[in-house]
Design brief:
- The protein is an all-alpha fold and 90 residues long.
- It contains 4 helices and no strands.
Length: 90
């Protein structure tokens, strides 16, 4: 198997922590990266979920606005979607 060098920039603390973790597992960082890349190829993408665990600022703002409106007696309430849509068409 032919090999090649690969260079990337990584936060110093992350590198140190990762090296310590993989050392405990009996691996060096190069081997750990190779395992990650091989597993990525095997599954056809990241070998773990990549997603935002928190809503973005726009979503948080909309959620807060909806919560405020739900408790505001001056905000008109509707019993069903059809009534709300009819109001929007006025």
């Amino acid at each position: 198997m032919a090999t090649t060098n690969f260079s990337c920039r990584i936060d110093t603390d992350i590198k140190k922590q990762s090296e310590a973790l993989y050392k405990e597992l009996g691996l060096n960082l190069t081997t750990a990266i190779n395992v990650f890349l091989r597993e990525s190829l095997r599954v056809g993408g990241f070998p773990f979920d990549v997603r935002l665990d928190k809503p973005n600022l726009e979503t948080v703002t909309a959620m807060l606005e909806a919560e405020k409106a739900a408790h505001d007696p001056s905000v008109k309430k509707f019993d069903d979607v059809e009534d709300a849509l009819a109001e929007l068409k006025k």
